[in-house]
TrEMBL record:
This is 3-oxoacyl-ACP reductase. Belongs to the short-chain dehydrogenases/reductases (SDR) family. Residues 9-208 form the Ketoreductase domain. GO terms for molecular function: oxidoreductase activity. Pfam families: adh_short_C2. InterPro entries: KR_dom (IPR057326), NAD(P)-bd_dom_sf (IPR036291), Sc_DH/Rdtase_CS (IPR020904), SDR_fam (IPR002347). Keywords: Oxidoreductase. It comes from Streptomyces fumanus.
Length: 248
């Protein structure tokens, strides 16, 4: 068996028990990385992903951590590095998806959304760079709603995902001297439990894409894997849409 692109690397994927996060964790393992994933509550789903990663021949660990809990989140980063001896790749995937009319999105919803979607990626990145050697990778999962918000009720969510653009650019500038790249992937409609391709609003959502279909989670994971690997070493500060043309 030949060398794989990420052999010897350790990756942490937040929210890696389902959907895009699980697909990213599996793809990074297939490319040779050992993977730690966090999950909020579903230990069974997380354990299933761990077993699938181990089936590829890589090491894997699931850590329970609510990304809104700053201490738990930071501890999960430190545990990932401590367990496998290093940390090369951080994927900020965990997200809060709270949408609804403005009058229903009050302080509690705003605090939760900003804690998970903005503060957590920042704090996880801050913790990760303490462990990363030169040439590390930070990749955050944004949303097509940062580029186009055609439906009502998404103001809070779109605001949180748009904030990641500024974070990505700022960290890319700061960490560039160390060869650490920082990038943002904006998925479009993706076939997950939270937004199934056969859901009640799927036809309307699909109509906004140029390709006329939803993505599969592995299609998003493929771009993350490119950014995480050696072929992505000269891409930093970028926001890359994997949205089937939703924002064109």
């Amino acid at each position: 068996m030949g060398m794989k692109r990420l052999d010897g690397n350790v990756a942490l994927v937040t929210g890696g028990s389902r959907g895009i996060g699980a697909a990213v964790a599996l793809r990074l393992a297939e490319d040779g990385a050992d993977v730690v994933l966090t999950y909020e509550s579903n230990a069974e789903r997380a354990a299933e992903v761990v077993e699938r990663i181990k089936a590829t021949g890589r090491r894997a660990l699931a850590v329970q951590a609510d990304s809104a809990d700053a201490e738990a989140l930071t501890a999960s980063v430190d545990r990932a590095a401590g367990t496998f001896g290093r940390l090369d790749i951080l994927v900020n995937n965990a997200g809060a998806f709270l949408v609804g009319p403005l009058e229903d999105m009050g302080p509690a919803e705003a605090d939760r959304t900003l804690a998970v979607n903005v503060r957590a990626p920042y704090l996880a990145s801050r913790a990760a760079v303490r462990h990363m050697t030169d040439g590390g990778r930070i990749i955050s999962i944004g949303s097509n709603m940062a580029g186009r918000t055609p439906f009502p009720g998404f103001a809070l969510y779109a605001m949180s995902k748009t904030a990641l653009i500024g974070m990505t650019k700022g960290l890319a500038r700061e960490l560039g001297p160390r060869g650490i790249t920082v990038n943002l992937v904006h998925p479009g409609p993706t076939d997950t439990d939270a937004n199934p391709a056969d859901g009640p609003n799927a036809a309307t959502i699909t109509a906004f894409t140029a390709l006329g279909r939803y993505a599969s989670p592995p299609e998003v994971a493929a771009t993350v894997a490119h950014l995480a690997g050696p072929d992505g070493q000269y891409i930093t500060g970028a926001s890359i849409a994997v949205d089937g043309g939703f924002t064109v």
